Design the sequence.
């Protein structure tokens, strides 16, 4: 499973990129707002840093507007993925932009039917939002499973990009189900390294080591 990081924070992206942990980046209007940066400037910096797909989201509600904004965002760099919402207009924009040879990420997906339509429209990525479904006492991971099954049944090439990830467990669950990509905030990727038994084991080793009176360096 590929890892994308869900942020527009350049320092966080740089750190994960230098460690070889990430294969791409996703942003959205809320993350751009949080960065306090100009969308084109910060997206260009991200694209200069990371070779993989960098999602930049349109904000128009009509397909014409999304197409125009998508073409403008695509001028930033070759690895831009144009993000459009899963509405009827978003699907129209997805079809046009995909036919132009551009990468398109259809976002705000909350049902298997929506994912089916995005695949028919030729989306490069479909972004089902796990956490926002879980917040409503629904099961976001079930949605990932359903889409995996449907895409595999018919050989759809659209990549499942699990989004709205809130915990380290979501990452391994998505990998078990077979999501192609998972996008997570930097803190969730860091949290994947944590285990209470690792900390406990380390404490015990260090306490015994102290008793030996030895040094390695
Ligand atoms: C995905 O591309 C979105 O940017 C993101 O995963 C949304 O996550 P949230 O529900 O935590 O805002």
Sequence:
């Amino acid at each position: 499973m590929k890892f994308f990081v869900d942020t527009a924070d350049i320092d966080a992206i740089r750190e994960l990129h230098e460690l070889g942990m990430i294969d791409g980046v996703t942003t959205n209007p809320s993350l751009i707002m949080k960065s306090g940066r100009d969308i084109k400037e910060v997206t260009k910096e991200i694209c200069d840093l990371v070779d993989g797909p960098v999602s930049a989201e349109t904000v128009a509600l009509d397909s014409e507007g999304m197409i125009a904004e998508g073409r403008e965002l695509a001028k930033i760099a070759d690895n831009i993925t144009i993000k459009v919402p899963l509405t009827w207009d978003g699907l129209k924009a997805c079809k046009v932009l995909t036919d132009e040879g551009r990468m398109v990420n259809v976002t705000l997906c909350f049902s298997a039917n929506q994912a089916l339509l995005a695949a028919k429209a030729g989306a490069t990525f479909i972004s089902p939002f796990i956490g926002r479904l879980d917040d409503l006492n629904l099961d976001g991971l079930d949605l990932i499973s359903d889409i995996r099954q449907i895409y595999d049944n018919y050989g759809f090439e659209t990549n499942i990009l699990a989004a709205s990830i809130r915990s380290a467990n979501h990452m391994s669950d998505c990998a078990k189900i077979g999501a192609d990509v998972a996008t997570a905030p930097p803190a969730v990727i860091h949290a994947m390294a944590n285990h209470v038994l690792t900390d406990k084991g380390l404490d015990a080793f260090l306490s015994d080591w102290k008793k030996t009176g030895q040094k390695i360096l």
